[in-house]
């Protein structure tokens, strides 16, 4: 992996640990020479992460729709800012530019981006790793929900492993580096498996 897309909250959240881990992840990017691809904001966890990467001499590429957000949200010191016309184009560019994906804590936008990345992995549109940085158990309810969806027959049990959950950012990146996507999994229970 050379570049990693990070989905993260545009708010800092209520726990100081969220910000601390955004900084820790940014430091890891710099230490390992990973390029950051993200939504381009200077605020919230997104901003803390980009600030850390840039302060350490790393590269940060932001992708943001024109006119959708107030100008004061755009990070002014990015290595590169890619302006696009829509949220769909934003996500497509972020996915194209990245070799893997990490979700820090965040809200609806973070979850929507995360689920698109893992859905595309499930469908074989990409074979890139998708990681959850589980700061203070933030993603534990989500992992329980995925297990519930497996039990209910809506997610193949093998596909649950597409979400790599770790509390330690270094361990998460190690797992992402060695990720091997599941092969020949039949997503659709009512269709015969392909030979």
UniProtKB/TrEMBL annotation:
GO terms for cellular component: cytosol. InterPro entries: LOG (IPR005269), LOG_fam (IPR031100). One of its GO terms (molecular function) is hydrolase activity, hydrolyzing N-glycosyl compounds. Transmembrane segments: none annotated. Keywords: Cytokinin biosynthesis, Hydrolase. SUPFAM superfamilies: MCP/YpsA-like. One of its GO terms (biological process) is cytokinin biosynthetic process. The keyword Hydrolase applies. The keyword Hydrolase applies. Pfam families: Lysine_decarbox. Its EC number is 3.2.2.n1. It is an enzyme of class 3 (hydrolase). It comes from the Bacteria. Gene3D superfamilies: 3.40.50.450. Belongs to the LOG family. PANTHER family: LOG FAMILY PROTEIN YJL055W. This is Cytokinin riboside 5'-monophosphate phosphoribohydrolase. It comes from Paenibacillus contaminans.
């Amino acid at each position: 992996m050379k570049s990693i897309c990070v989905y993260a909250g545009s708010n800092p959240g209520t726990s100081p640990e969220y910000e601390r881990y955004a900084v820790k992840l940014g430091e890891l990017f710099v230490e390992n020479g990973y390029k950051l691809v993200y939504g381009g904001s200077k605020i919230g966890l997104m901003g803390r992460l980009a600030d850390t990467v840039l302060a350490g001499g790393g590269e940060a590429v932001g992708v943001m729709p024109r006119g959708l957000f107030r100008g004061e949200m755009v990070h002014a010191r990015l290595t590169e800012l890619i302006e696009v016309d829509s949220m769909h184009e934003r996500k497509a560019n972020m996915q194209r530019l990245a070799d893997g994906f990490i979700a820090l804590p965040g809200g609806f936008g973070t979850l929507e981006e995360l689920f698109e990345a893992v859905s595309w992995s499930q469908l074989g549109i990409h074979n890139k790793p998708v990681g959850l940085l589980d700061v203070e158990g933030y993603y534990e309810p989500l992992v329980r929900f995925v297990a519930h969806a497996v039990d209910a027959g809506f997610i193949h049990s093998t596909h649950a492993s597409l979400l790599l959950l770790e509390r330690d950012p270094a361990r998460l990146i190690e797992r992402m580096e060695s990720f091997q996507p599941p092969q020949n999994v039949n997503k659709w229970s009512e269709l015969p498996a392909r030979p």
